[in-house]
Structure formats: structure tokens, C-alpha cells
Specification:
Blueprint: E1 4-11, E2 14-21, E3 30-33, H1 48-54, E4 58-62, H2 81-94, E5 100-105, H3 107-116, E6 125-131, H4 137-148, H5 153-165, H6 171-184, H7 195-198, H8 205-211, E7 239-244, H9 251-260, E8 265-270, H10 277-280, H11 282-302
Parallel strand pairs: 3-4, 3-5, 5-6, 6-7, 7-8
Antiparallel strand pairs: 1-2, 2-4
């Protein structure tokens, strides 16, 4: 049975909350990077059972500024990729991990790409799993505009007017945005769904707005110039790409990522699923990740 350990790691004068599942297991650990920016690890607790099924430690954490790593508003200078890359480096160093795998979902996948393609040697990194993510902010924006055209005409009009005016504050826009979310991102959760999906999150809107922008469709924050398609050839470890058939991380985005990666790679589209593939195709997702991690571990051993 996987044992769970919770701790806080000192970082930049603050603390990073860390949750380790199966710290008693001996396989190479899997580090999970959650979405957002500014969300939490909460929903990734759905992957706890992977630890027992594969007898592998899983390390998840709340990135600085959210969840149990919340430090309040008024820290805009911290909400950028440099901070979160340093936080990941700090976690790996503090836990003295000689080897590790990474799995990043959505923004977590972006962080994974930034971390890996920085030009800095990542000693001990064994593989990447890129889960419903992106390598180009401009492509994400253009694909979002295309996805909007499949919404009801009323919602299309409201969203497009908000984009044109750069004003996303109205109740009407928020209602239409939820239509988009429920079509491409997540379902409407009920009391029958796991508690980790319904548990109240400690979020800091300043984090998301500073780094990404005021809405999902237009990257206007400091990540607006995130363009890594031409840098993905720097990746030198095996890569596992996962995305949903009805995901806002569209097949076009994932196909271009897949083509740009030159190392050992695979890509699986999970269906039926929106953005939260590890929830909507839970069993298939876990099976896929376990098979990939063991393939990499075995390959490393044989080499």
C-alpha cells in the first residue's frame, strides 16, 4: 500500500507544498506538474493509484502562489516561468533525486518543455509525458478561435465581442466561457465525482492573469511569447504525448509537437475526453503512463 508523505520545502523565502505518494517504493519517481498557471495539484490525486499499480513514487506539489503554496496577492514579479523552473530545480535538489520522470498537464506540460529546452543539462531526467499541452501560444490562440466557432451562435458573439474589446469582466462572457469549458476542458462535476475534483482550491487569480492573461483564449501575459516548436529538437529523452479527442489541446497542436520532437516518441489520443484526460479516460490514461515509464526504465537498464 502506497504511503503518503506531505512536507514543505523552503524556496525563495517561501515554502513549496509537496505530496509524495508511495515514497516507500523503489522505482524511478514520477514528478507531476499541474496546470494553470495558478491551479493546484488537487485533481492529480486521481493518479494516486498509479503508485500502487506500478510500485512507483509519485511526487506532486502546488507551485508557488497557489494551493498550499499560496503567498497572497501582490507578487507579480514572481509569476513567470523562471520562478517555476527554479522551483522545480529546487524540489529535485532538496529531495536528492538522482533520476526522475516528468509528467506535465496543460500549463504543467509547458513548464516541462521550458525546463527541458532551456539549454541546461538536466542530469537524471529519464522521460517526459506531455499531457494535453502546447508548444506555441500563438497556435493555441488560433486554435481556440476555431473551437469557438463550434459553440452556439450567442456564445460565439459574446466571446468574440469580449476578445475584440479586451474586456472579459461581464457575467455574460463568464457564462459563455463556461460553455466553452464544458465542451473542451472539463465536465460538470457532481457529488458522485472524486472529492479531489470538488475540494475547494486556494487560487490566486493574479498568478494566471500575470502569466497567461485575463482569459483562456488570448495569451496577453508574460507567456504570450511562449514559442517552442522550433526548440523541441533539443529534447533528448523519450516523450509520451497524451491528448483528448475533444481537447482544447487540439490534434493539430499535438501533431506539430510530435513531428518536431526527434527522439523516441509516441502519441495517443484518448476518447471520449476533453482536456482532463486523466479523469475522463482514467484507466486508459494510467495504463498508458505505466507502460511508457516501464518501457523507458527497461530501455535505460538494457542500454
Amino acid at each position: 500500500m502506497a504511503k503518503i508523505r506531505q512536507l514543505y520545502i523552503p524556496f525563495m523565502g517561501y515554502k513549496t507544498y509537496v505530496r509524495i505518494v508511495g515514497y516507500n517504493y523503489k522505482k524511478t519517481p514520477l514528478i507531476l506538474l499541474h496546470g494553470g498557471p495558478g491551479s493546484t495539484h488537487n485533481s492529480q490525486e486521481l493518479l494516486d493509484e498509479l503508485s500502487d499499480a506500478d510500485e512507483r513514487p509519485i511526487i506532486m506539489y502546488d507551485q508557488l502562489g497557489c494551493g498550499k503554496s499560496y503567498i497572497g496577492e501582490g507578487h507579480k514579479e514572481l509569476w513567470n516561468s523562471d520562478t517555476w523552473v527554479k522551483e522545480l530545480e529546487n524540489l529535485i535538489g532538496y529531495l536528492k533525486l538522482k533520476e526522475y520522470h516528468l509528467l506535465g498537464h496543460s500549463w504543467g506540460g509547458m513548464l516541462e518543455i521550458i525546463y527541458t529546452c532551456s539549454g541546461k543539462e538536466r542530469v537524471g531526467l529519464k522521460s517526459l509525458t506531455l499531457s494535453s499541452t502546447l508548444a506555441s501560444a500563438s497556435l493555441w490562440e488560433s486554435e481556440a478561435k476555431r473551437l469557438i466557432t463550434y459553440l452556439p451562435l450567442k456564445d460565439q458573439r459574446i466571446i468574440n465581442e469580449a476578445i475584440q474589446k479586451n474586456d472579459f469582466s461581464s457575467k455574460e462572457f463568464n457564462k459563455s466561457m463556461m460553455v466553452y469549458y464544458h465542451k473542451y476542458v472539463w465536465p460538470k462535476f457532481t457529488k458522485k465525482d472524486p472529492l479531489c475534483l470538488r475540494r475547494k482550491k486556494v487560487k490566486c487569480p493574479e498568478v494566471y492573469e500575470t502569466s497567461w492573461g485575463p482569459c483562456e483564449f488570448r495569451p496577453l501575459g508574460n507567456l504570450k511569447d511562449y514559442e517552442y516548436l522550433d526548440k523541441l529538437d533539443r529534447i533528448n529523452v523519450p516523450v509520451n504525448i497524451l491528448s483528448g479527442a475533444d481537447d482544447e489541446s487540439t490534434p493539430l497542436q499535438n501533431k506539430l509537437m510530435y513531428d518536431a520532437i526527434k527522439t523516441d516518441k509516441r502519441w495517443t489520443i484518448l476518447s471520449p475526453s476533453r482536456h482532463m484526460t486523466y479523469f475522463e479516460c482514467h484507466d486508459e490514461y494510467i495504463k498508458n503512463v505505466i507502460e511508457f515509464l516501464n518501457y523507458v526504465d527497461k530501455k535505460e537498464h538494457n542500454d
